[in-house]
């Protein structure tokens, strides 16, 4: 039941977006439940992790049915479609592309036929050794077999994983996965299934989150605990780095395919995860409030009002206001329904830029000295427009405070940052960045402070976008691009 008449969405301004995560994944084993609808609502809770395409695969024990299309979860699925996806087990995926173009063929879950019927698979993350894996795939079978495995109908690393598993025709799904998983490098959280068993696996570094939850009569896995909450599942634990879990009619079992070397993404705490999600046992909202308090200690300001850049800056702004004693207020209104549209904006509308998403409350900001709290500065376009907008609305002063260190390095593990040459921070001082965005002052949370509030050891976190220390070897083209920059920075020390 795959519908190939997909539509391509367009961003309002591709040069003015924040960092984007690769995907959200969800899986459920629950005989007797409406698993397609549970998956729909789980993906709805994970929509922030990917807005380009969405898909659900369901099995009734005899065949796997896949439905996917371009667009938001609510645009792809309707009641009739969900009612037609009957079964006892399902996986789902909400995609933002970091590997492979934003086209229908790259939507997930992917599907490959096998001796036992087939494998459907969804992936959150980004592999760094795809060249090596493609060579292995070619060695595994003839070009005809590779073509039949489906590798050639898409350009993402998820299809590569599924195709590799499908080449082990003499093994069952679990054994095939245990052959393939140890060969993968990079960040990967996988949900996959055959007709009988649901699987979930996480890379040895555990860069992206993956949670396991319990239903009254089943199990759920999801990229974030917020998706467990929405379907009524109780959080049990995280899928551990280097672990694969298998869930079937006889319960749940665990297999270790690699030794753990924890390097959880620090950026999940700052921006990517929902505020109501648990990371390492800590509620993200509470972490961000503490980030704001520490930010106020590190970078105080004389001001009349603290306002967030909604919505991701809100918890930190609350913390900043509480610690500083400066009143908290809402100075910007966000249009929650703007972000992606099927209609390209006209040039006149495009020139309005961020006003499509944010608009100032003039009566609140006029004549006041403002502290504006935001999560990150990537290219600087958003902050530049926000500062200008607030000044036009009558703000007396605009002091920008960022709840993370400067983003100086690209991510190769599933976040679609700009290349280093497009980032604002590299090669610039804080004063120069302040002038570039037009603010009266600018302050970033220190890396030491950010690590501190996570309650995790620094060497258990991936901090690469902030300090350039990559915990997993980079793909060769990226390594050639980044290494000279690393050497230049070392020479400057």
UniProtKB/TrEMBL annotation:
Names of required cofactors: Mg(2+); [4Fe-4S] cluster
Keyword set, alphabetical order: 4Fe-4S, Glutamine amidotransferase, Glycosyltransferase, Iron, Iron-sulfur, Magnesium, Metal-binding, Purine biosynthesis, Transferase
Enzyme class name: transferase
Positions of the Glutamine amidotransferase type-2 domain: 23-250
Organism listed in the record: Ammonicoccus fulvus
Its EC number(s): 2.4.2.14
GO MF, one annotated term: amidophosphoribosyltransferase activity
Protein name: Amidophosphoribosyltransferase
One Pfam family of this chain: GATase_6
Family the UniProt entry places it in: In the C-terminal section; belongs to the purine/pyrimidine phosphoribosyltransferase family.
Record: active site: 23
Protein's pathway: Purine metabolism; IMP biosynthesis via de novo pathway; N(1)-(5-phospho-D-ribosyl)glycinamide from 5-phospho-alpha-D-ribose 1-diphosphate: step 1/2
Cofactor-binding details, from the entry: Binds 1 Mg(2+) ion per subunit. Binds 1 [4Fe-4S] cluster per subunit.
Function: Catalyzes the formation of phosphoribosylamine from phosphoribosylpyrophosphate (PRPP) and glutamine.
Catalysed reactions, as listed in the record: 5-phospho-beta-D-ribosylamine + L-glutamate + diphosphate = 5-phospho-alpha-D-ribose 1-diphosphate + L-glutamine + H2O
Domain of life: Bacteria
Keyword Oxidoreductase: no
Gene3D superfamilies attached to this UniProt entry: 3.40.50.2020, Glutamine Phosphoribosylpyrophosphate, subunit 1, domain 1 (3.60.20.10)
Binding site for [4Fe-4S] cluster: 265, 411, 462, 465
Keyword S-adenosyl-L-methionine part of the UniProt annotation: no
Binding site for Mg(2+): 312, 374-375
């Amino acid at each position: 039941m795959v519908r190939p008449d997909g539509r391509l969405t367009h961003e309002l301004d591709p040069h003015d977006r924040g960092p984007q995560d690769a995907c959200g994944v969800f899986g459920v084993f629950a005989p007797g439940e409406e698993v397609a609808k549970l998956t729909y609502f789980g993906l709805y809770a994970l929509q922030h992790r990917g807005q380009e395409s969405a898909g659900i695969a369901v099995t009734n024990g005899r065949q796997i049915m896949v439905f996917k299309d371009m667009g938001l979860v609510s645009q792809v699925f309707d009641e009739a479609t969900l009612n037609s996806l009957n079964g006892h087990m399902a996986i789902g995926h909400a995609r933002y592309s970091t590997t492979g173009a934003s086209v229908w063929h790259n939507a997930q879950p992917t599907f490959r036929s096998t001796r036992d019927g087939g494998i459907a698979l969804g992936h959150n993350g980004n592999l760094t050794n795809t060249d090596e894996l493609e060579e292995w795939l070619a060695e595994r079978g003839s070009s005809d077999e590779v073509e039949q495995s489906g590798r050639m109908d898409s350009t993402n690393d998820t299809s590569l994983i599924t195709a590799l598993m499908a080449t082990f025709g003499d093994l069952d799904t679990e054994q095939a996965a245990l052959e393939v998983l140890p060969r993968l490098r990079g960040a990967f959280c996988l949900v996959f299934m055959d007709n009988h068993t649901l699987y979930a696996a996480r890379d040895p570094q555990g860069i992206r989150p993956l949670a396991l939850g319990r239903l009254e009569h089943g199990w759920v896995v999801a990229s974030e605990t917020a998706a467990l909450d929405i379907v009524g599942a109780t959080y049990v634990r995280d899928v551990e780095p280097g672990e694969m879990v298998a869930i079937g009619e006889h319960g749940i079992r665990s297999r270790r395919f690699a030794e753990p070397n924890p390097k959880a993404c620090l950026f999940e705490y700052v921006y990517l995860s929902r505020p109501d999600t648990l990371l390492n046992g800590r509620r993200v909202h509470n972490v961000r409030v503490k980030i704001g308090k520490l930010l106020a200690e590190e970078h105080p300001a004389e001001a009349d009002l603290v306002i967030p850049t909604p919505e991701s800056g809100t918890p930190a702004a609350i913390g900043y206001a509480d610690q500083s004693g400066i009143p908290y207020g809402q100075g910007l209104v966000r249009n929650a329904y703007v972000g992606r549209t099927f209609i390209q904006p006209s040039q006149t509308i495009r020139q309005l830029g961020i006003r499509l998403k944010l608009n100032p409350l003039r009566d609140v900001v006029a004549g006041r000295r403002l502290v504006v709290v935001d999560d990150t500065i990537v290219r600087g376009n958003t902050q530049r427009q926000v500062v200008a907008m607030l000044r036009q609305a009558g703000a007396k002063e605009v002091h920008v405070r960022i709840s993370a260190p400067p983003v100086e390095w690209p991510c190769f593990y599933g976040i679609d940052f700009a290349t280093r040459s497009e980032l604002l921070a590299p090669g610039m001082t804080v004063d120069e960045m302040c002038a570039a965005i037009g603010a009266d002052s600018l302050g970033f949370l220190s890396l030491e402070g950010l690590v501190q509030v996570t309650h995790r050891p620094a060497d258990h976190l991936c901090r690469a976008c902030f300090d350039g220390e990559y915990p997993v070897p980079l793909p060769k083209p990226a390594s050639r691009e980044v290494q000279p920059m690393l050497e230049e920075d070392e020479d400057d020390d």
